[in-house]
Amino acid sequence: xxxxxxxxxxxxxxxxxxxxxxxxxxxxxxxxxxxxxxxxxxxxxxxxxxxxxxxxxxxxxxxxxxxxxxxxxxxxxxxxxxxxxxxxxxxxxxxxxxxxxxxxxxxxxxxxxxxxxxxxxxxxxxxxxxxxxxxxxxxxxxxxxxxxxxxxxxxxxxxxxxxxxxxxxxxxxxxxxxxxxxxxxxxxxxxxxxxxxxxxxxxxxxxxxxxxxxxxxxxxxxxxxxxxxxxxxxxxxxxxxxxxxxxxxxxxxxxxx
Length: 257
Prior knowledge:
Blueprint: H1 9-21, H2 25-28, H3 53-77, H4 89-105, H5 124-141, E1 161-165, E2 177-181, H6 183-191, E3 202-204, E4 212-214, H7 229-240
Antiparallel strand pairs: 1-2, 3-4
Helix pairs in contact: 1-3, 3-4, 3-5, 4-5, 4-7
């Protein structure tokens, strides 16, 4: 994809949203729409272990659209407020980082996520990254900054503990690995450790490869999510050509947050 300058991506995206496309965001999946911004972040989210590309596109469209709406609406209504929703400066920066980085993955255009788009759209791994970043940004918007997602399935949401889990059939890997996991995956690992591998998220494989591929074995930046949200942000920016790492403000658009 052609890289966009980091100083332009989020504002370009928000301008596209305000040009008349916003109304479709909450309509497609209301349970993930703007009303969810007011709710407390959940420890674990329901997510399929074998999501289809169509599911990922719809979810990415909903989540990224909701984050951009929140960013844009807060900026319009509270220009004189130094902090949004009681958030710390660190949380505000995380909102910006997540919105900017997710926008890089869609080339600054939410329409690329629509199933009726003439273009193929981002690949499944990039769609997962968009969802992860958008959800982390929405949580930060409400003042909760978390660095780790569930390593079994990043769409489960924030990790709540580290636990030794076995992500392949027992005969293949008897010991397992110590990973950050959500509450649901930890409970499964305690009660039925031999079944945790069935919760591992796999994605549609390439045309010339296997039908499904473990998410962390796909090409692109998604593998970095196991190391944390900041690492995923940095990896996306490095791949797309953005020049500043997460945790450092850029000039210009950041001032509007």
